[in-house]
Write a structure and sequence with these properties.
disordered N terminus; alpha/beta; twelve-stranded mixed sheet; single chain; 42% helix
């Protein structure tokens, strides 16, 4: 994800602490909620002070150009005075680094894909921290002990070239009935392409352990000669070599706006899709643990969530009111009413391993 807009607004640490920690107070629990708010505020001020003593936070896999991390790091520097440095790497590399360095840690916090969150915990390289907005995070998107929580999501979508496709598809059924070619990417290799298959499976009555409905769907596209082998890259979209592509919504929206907003339509398939996302992990051996926890706290604050949305990452906290200019960049909330998270990771990993051969034998064999 590349950010197009960046944040330069500075907010004082005191104001941030107050706004992050104040819950809504009901009449029935007025007294206890006030006490809780006071405790939260005191705890957060203690965290801010401890983080400021550490003075810096070192991240991995959180570069300026991805999900507008640039805006968040700028805010953390201006609000709290923390220096920041990132080393970009993959989710697997981040976990391996935490495990290899142990007490000689050079990284405090990382950002990994949903499928890697449990791997990190299982390897024993994380430490928990629940931000004050914890209750706003859906149960499916967080670890009950606070080791991980998705800050933003991605959902499989369709991007259509309006110059080449008269009626942009809004469902898998539309896709099957169209007269255009469909690009899905390198199934069996690319995570985005594999998730496109899983999304079709969810829509067609399958699940993580049963991809057969999706395989049958793409086999039918192949029989029609409508499965394209063109890479769904921004360059190929710009050149007009892609009619419809299946990809993460954040990629599709970013590509659309980088090329020409009017040339492309981006839609979530209304008969079903898959939703995934990314979570921060705090290094168990972090040299600056409080700075890492404060970074997570800010990422889940209203402004932290808005920063992510400016980079096309869909915030996990649906209660956050996004500025109109940011809302206009994203897909309307009502398009996400039929999206499904992965709930059986063991089954999905097993299915994904079998997918390259299935794709070759049951889909590509039909392609003319």
């Amino acid at each position: 994800m590349n950010k197009l807009l960046s944040r330069t607004t500075a907010v004082s640490a005191t104001l941030i602490a107050a706004t992050l920690s104040m819950p809504v107070i009901s009449a029935e629990s007025h007294s206890s909620e006030i006490n809780s708010a006071a405790t939260n505020n005191a705890d957060l001020q203690t965290l801010i002070s401890a983080a400021q003593k550490e003075g810096a936070v070192y991240s991995v896999g959180m570069p300026d150009s991805w999900a507008n991390w640039k805006g968040t790091w700028a805010d953390i520097k201006s609000n709290y005075g923390l220096k920041h440095q990132d080393t970009d790497m993959s989710s697997a590399q981040e976990i391996a680094k935490f495990a290899a360095e142990k007490k000689n840690a050079t990284a405090d916090i990382g950002d990994v894909g949903f499928a890697f969150a449990r791997v990190a915990v299982k390897k024993g390289v994380t430490q928990p921290y629940k931000p004050t907005t914890w209750n706003d995070i859906p149960d499916w998107a967080k670890d009950q002990d606070g080791h991980w929580a998705l800050a933003y999501t991605g959902t499989i979508s369709f991007i259509s070239n309006n110059n080449l496709v008269k009626n942009a598809p809004t469902s898998w059924d539309d896709l099957l009935k169209g007269d255009y070619k469909v690009t899905v990417g390198d199934v069996g290799v690319a995570a985005q392409a594999n998730n496109a298959v899983l999304a079709a499976a969810f829509a067609k009555g399958g699940n993580e352990s049963n991809l057969k409905p999706a395989i049958q769907f793409f086999a039918e596209l192949a029989k029609q000669g409508r499965l394209s082998f063109t890479d769904p890259s921004i360059a190929n979209l710009e050149k007009g070599e892609v009619e419809v592509a299946i990809m993460w919504d954040f990629n599709a929206l970013n590509y659309r706006d980088k090329i020409d907003r009017e040339r492309f339509s981006v839609n979530i398939p209304q008969d079903g899709s898959v939703i995934s996302g990314y979570t921060t992990i705090i290094n168990k051996y972090a040299q600056n643990p409080n700075a890492a926890k404060l970074a997570r706290e800010y990422i889940f604050s209203d402004q932290g969530q808005i920063n992510l949305a400016e980079g096309y990452a869909r915030p996990i906290r649906s209660s956050v009111t996004l500025p109109q200019s940011v809302q206009d960049k994203l897909i309307a909330n009502d398009q996400y009413s039929n999206v499904h998270p992965v709930t059986d990771f063991t089954a999905w990993e097993k299915s994904a391993r079998k997918l390259p051969r299935q794709w070759q034998e049951s889909v590509l064999i039909h392609q003319q």
